[in-house]
């Protein structure tokens, strides 16, 4: 069965410091991995994805994520956090090539402290 | 930039009533989804729709729910005989014809059952 785990409900980081939001996945085949961000009272906004190729993928707003097959992880990172990065972050996986739906993690609330 | 639009943004209904949530997916997309998010909780998959039929559905998507793509542009979710526990944010999403494409989400409809 496909699943995604986000082990941290809450991550706090000081502005200007690097941030990491963790995600691990479980799929039966090769994964397509995604990160989404949700600001208050808004929909989910796509940040980045890993499909194949380079394990480090870059996305919107300076975010990047590293795919690690041996650890089945896809952690979201940013070198220098901004207060405006404070939001809810969701990791998602789609089981390639047969799966249709996206499986979401439980979300991690990121707070960047000024 | 193309986007998924959902109407209404907020729907209040009495328990036992029927509601229809409407979505206009991105025009050249072929996969359509409904997800829901109960306040403060994870994003839960309801149903996916492809080639004019349901391709996957979750345990949540029981006989109370139905989806329809009546005119080639709209994608609706009907909830019959609403219950208090149906109160949630409902998100529509669409994605392209390849499994490596991300899903684009609408802003959501907040359904409140009273």
Give an account of the 3D structure.
The complex is a heterodimer of chains A (114) and B (114). Chain A has strands spanning 3-5, 10-14, 19-21, 24-26, 30-38, 44-50, 56-58, 64-68, 73-78, 87-96, 103-104, 108-113. Chain A is mainly beta and 114 residues long. In chain A, the strands form 3 sheets. In chain A, strands 2, 5, 6, 10, 11 and 12 form a 6-stranded mixed sheet that branches. A 4-stranded antiparallel sheet of chain A has the order 3-9-8-7, with no helix packed on it. Chain A has a two-stranded antiparallel sheet with strand order 1-4. Chain A starts with a strand and ends with a strand. With 114 residues, chain B is mainly β. In chain B, strands 2, 4, 5, 6, 9, 10 and 11 form a 7-stranded mixed sheet that branches. Chain B has a 4-stranded antiparallel sheet with strand order 1-3-8-7, with no helix packed on it. Chains A and B meet through β5, β6, β10 and β11 of A and β4, β5 and β10 of B.
- How helix-rich are the residues of chain A, as a percent range? under 10%
Helical region count of chain B? 0
Strand content of chain A: over 45%
Q: Measured on Cα atoms, how large is the radius of gyration of chain A?
A: 13 Å
Largest sheet: number of strands, sense, barrel closure of chain B: 7 strands, mixed
Oligomeric state of shown chains? heterodimer
Shape of chain A: globular
Number of helices of chain A: 0
The geometry of chain B reads as: globular
Number of strands of chain A: 12
Mean of pLDDT of chain A: 92
**SSE order of chain A, one letter for each helix or strand:** EEEEEEEEEEEE
Termini separation of chain A comes to 41 Å
Order of helices and strands of chain B: EEEEEEEEEEE
């Amino acid at each position: 069965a496909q699943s995604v785990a986000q082990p941290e409900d809450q991550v706090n980081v000081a502005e200007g410091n690097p941030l990491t939001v963790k995600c691990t996945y479980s799929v039966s085949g090769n994964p397509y991995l995604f990160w989404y961000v949700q600001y208050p009272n808004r929909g989910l906004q796509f940040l980045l994805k890993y499909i194949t190729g380079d394990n480090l993928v870059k996305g919107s707003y300076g975010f990047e994520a590293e795919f690690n097959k041996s650890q089945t992880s896809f952690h979201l990172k940013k070198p220098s956090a901004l207060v405006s990065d404070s939001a809810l972050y969701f990791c998602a996986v789609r089981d390639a090539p047969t799966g249709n739906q996206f499986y979401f993690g439980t979300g991690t609330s990121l707070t960047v402290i000024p | 930039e193309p986007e998924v639009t959902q109407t209404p943004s907020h729907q209040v209904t009495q328990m036992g009533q029927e509601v229809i949530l409407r979505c206009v997916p991105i025009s050249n997309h072929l996969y359509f989804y409904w997800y829901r998010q109960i306040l403060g909780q994870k994003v839960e998959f309801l149903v996916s729709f492809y080639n004019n039929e349901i391709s996957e559905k979750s345990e949540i998507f029981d006989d109370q729910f139905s989806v329809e793509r009546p005119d080639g542009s709209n994608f609706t979710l009907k909830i019959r005989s609403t219950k208090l526990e149906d109160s949630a944010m409902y998100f529509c999403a669409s994605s392209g014809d390849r499994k490596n494409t991300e899903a684009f989400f609408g802003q959501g409809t907040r359904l409140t059952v009273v």
